[in-house]
Design goal:
Oligomer: single chain
Largest sheet: 4 strands, antiparallel
Radius of gyration: 16 Å
Strand content: 35-45%
Helix content: under 10%
Distance between the termini: 53 Å
Strand order of the largest sheet: 1-2-3-4
Order of helices and strands: EEEEEEEEEEEEEEEH
């Protein structure tokens, strides 16, 4: 469908922009020029922009409205970039739980789930950069967390084959309590 283009080895978490026109491709594991994310045209493969990072990037995720790109680094930080002009927005999120394996925005774009190498999934308020809290780790193993399409749950899949799901919507909590 698209002519092949070369990317770095060990890309674990590329992401399409919401409109499907762009592809975020992390690099850094074996890249001579440092670490970061290349933004490619999804049709031609042409490089549109490069976002630099100070640590290896394993995964990236566009916000649902396409205005932000979250990049997860092996130093345990998550950086948010404005896609309009490719500038960093605010201070990094620091789950401080080992390197970040995956990031996923909630469907409304207000929260971000950061999956870490210690088995936790940390939830963050995107606007305030405040931690909402970590979901309990089921095991001390690698985890990949993701929001459900309605944003009410976060599912976590662990490298030992175990999977868990948590309700994260406060309205759902009130239904259980009241």
């Amino acid at each position: 469908v698209v002519p092949p283009f070369e990317v770095d080895p060990f890309v674990l978490g590329l992401d399409f922009s919401p409109d499907g026109s762009k592809l975020a491709v992390p690099f850094g594991f074996a890249h001579a020029g440092g670490s970061g994310v290349e933004i490619r045209d999804a049709t031609s493969g042409e490089r549109l922009a490069t976002v630099s990072a100070n640590s290896e990037v394993r995964t990236a995720s566009f916000s649902p409205d396409g205005r932000l790109l979250a990049i997860a680094q092996v130093d345990g930080q998550v950086h948010l970039w404005a896609t309009e002009d490719w500038r960093e927005v605010g201070t990094p999120l620091a789950p401080d739980r080992g390197f970040v394996l995956r990031v996923d925005f909630s469907p409304d774009g207000r929260a971000l789930a950061a999956s870490s190498a210690d088995g936790t999934v940390s939830l963050w308020d995107v606007a305030s950069r405040e931690a909402i809290g970590p979901l309990p780790a089921a095991t001390n193993s690698w985890v990949s967390g993701r929001f459900s399409p309605d944003g009410r749950r976060v599912a976590a899949l662990y490298d030992n084959g175990r999977a868990l799901s948590w309700e994260v919507d406060p309205a759902a909590w009130l239904q259980h309590v009241c």
